[in-house]
């Protein structure tokens, strides 16, 4: 029995209690006093059971009777949850139909007729569940299960929730780094061996990957090697997948449809003659044949290429036929303490808490110099200054528990990690255990995981009800700060779990959560399997899912895309899944051969989350709109999808609708009924039918990203005002598109009025305006009040004759302007209209002008503008003759292409290191910037003097 039993049960009981007291359910039940009494009795019993669950969790490890008691309780609680879900679904149906102006009383009467007559099986089912629960409750005294000593504290947000963990603060590894850097820089040991392999060997949790990352990202390494690639190998044994992963890290990537032979030839071509560094992280495979198949291609690289391998297994070193391995030692106590303190004492000085320092240093000694152990326990005690809590960790018997007491936990799992889980609040325990559904090294999005938690009822609402999405954000941030999740880098929203953390999640979840990996992996699916993930293979045939019918109460089927190019799934899977009436989550993402959804999808009435992204679906059956519990529908990348079901407005529980990358031509009518929706990625305006733009005004909770397309179909500008974008303060990204394929000059004044009425909230960070037909922009575009704007792109606005005053946007970092055929001069109005006193473009780092067919002059009189600009690109501006900013002190990269008449000198800048010029015949190049490291010249003026300068600079790349 797994540790997660209590955590998931507690969540389910909370869901049951919420349903019992919910207004919709009670309105249906109160017509029959006897049935109300039954539910009240059920509520009392459930509260009695929940009170002893914490004690049951602790005793299940040593008492098999308690373990069996939890199994029985789990079965009956899930049956009860499905039963009450049936009632609440009817309540939702009632709510939807009452909006169609039907008589509500008649509907309620119809519901009771269906569900609650004295001879109805529903009544018998309630009695059966009550009887089984009474028996279970009566056993708690025999098992000596005791209630909670005190109520668990309500969830509170951590004090610090926004800043990233500083992974650059690596402690105690400077010596090791320098040793390996020396190995990378020196000549290969053997003349006939072009590639040296450097294995970093050590047990899990020592920090092998952290050390390798530190080396990989060092600036010296970038100078020493022409190509770099980082690949997480983990337990992967297929050479073709490793080959593909390497190619994807190299410039140009690879085609998913290529065969193994094609991939290997491409890798050979990429590496040939190039000095490369390859990091193979977390290698487990001890098969010499697999390594030999890869090694052949590495030999085509230039002399002194290097491969760093991180592994727990000394055998890998022997198989790779390397010289001496580099065994990584444990951290010293002092270094371990520094790392622990960094995470435990956030926002305070450890010296101010001498009592905690003494306890903390004793805890650190028990970490045995393991980096992951110190980080995890530091994260566990983050911002907690209660000495009693610290002592509890120090003296916990988890440090000494043997596998006889915890037989389901692997001996490879560090005691510190067990402690980190054990002392999690119960609401985070169940959320963490659910993460075991992800395969090792799976890179997941924050939003993806929160949606899954939400669908499974794992997010608790506070007394003020609040917002489930915000609660999910809080949970996720808390677990990230406790270091259960690692962000890949600061610029990405993807996360991963350390493999030892993943092992811990798998151990605590037990058989309740199972991963299907490999074509014959279904044998361990049992009747108690509640959550199942499937790692796609190229052909997911019937045999793979032969044990699926065993999972009687399956609640999750999550498809996880592998590296297979065009995965195929057996039709049997869809048939079997439609029989799983308890499903809350269904993902069939990535199966190209799925082109329709059966009408029987309506049988999955408990479904909360449906993911059909990157399938070949063209249309969805209207029966989908009877899934009143549906919260999330993901259709991202369904490039054949042309329309949504006509009754989408009935899905009143919808919170998330992702329709990016589809071919929708309109939104169905009634989208404004989805009043609770938080994420609506796109809103497509039809020409005559479907939802009009004013429907957006009813969607008051929109957040994140919104793209409104086909704005040419807005009939009246006042309808655009009714969209009420100005009050949608949680929107961060906005895309406004007219019609990219329409080159006909429309009503310029009408388009300007529409755009003027679409003024968004000033919290917006990203905006893209595309194919706008007006001649000028309204005043809000570039207004200084948009102080949060960091990214702006104006594209294909062919009829505009001037640019807005964008220099007033004080936080703008990236600006792209393209396709403005009517702009002749970029003048002073581009920098300011006199309303703001800040330096023009004071934060801008990236600027691009492209396809400006009529642009002739760029005027810039101020030396204060563009003070932080690092990258400048000017492409396809054939009439541009003169004037560029003369003073760009921070410029590092300059790209000018197809500007045949541009004749000015390059801007003076001391920091430029990359220069690319293409077909710039009149541009004055001399003298070349002294710090230049990379120069590309094609079809431009290049004389002997320039060639001599290039040789003096020893430029890395010339053409």
From TrEMBL:
Gene3D superfamilies: 1.20.5.4130, Helical domain of apoptotic protease-activating factors, P-loop containing nucleotide triphosphate hydrolases, Ribonuclease Inhibitor, Winged helix-like DNA-binding domain superfamily/Winged helix DNA-binding domain. Transmembrane segments: none annotated. InterPro entries: Apaf_helical, LRR_dom_sf, LRR_R13L1-DRL21, NB-ARC, P-loop_NTPase, Rx_N, WH-like_DNA-bd_sf, WHD_DRP. It comes from the Eukaryota. Pfam families: LRR_R13L1-DRL21 (PF25019), NB-ARC (PF00931), Rx_N (PF18052), WHD_DRP (PF23559). Residues 693-819 form the R13L1/DRL21-like LRR repeat region domain. This is Disease resistance RPP13-like protein 1. It comes from Gossypium mustelinum (Cotton).
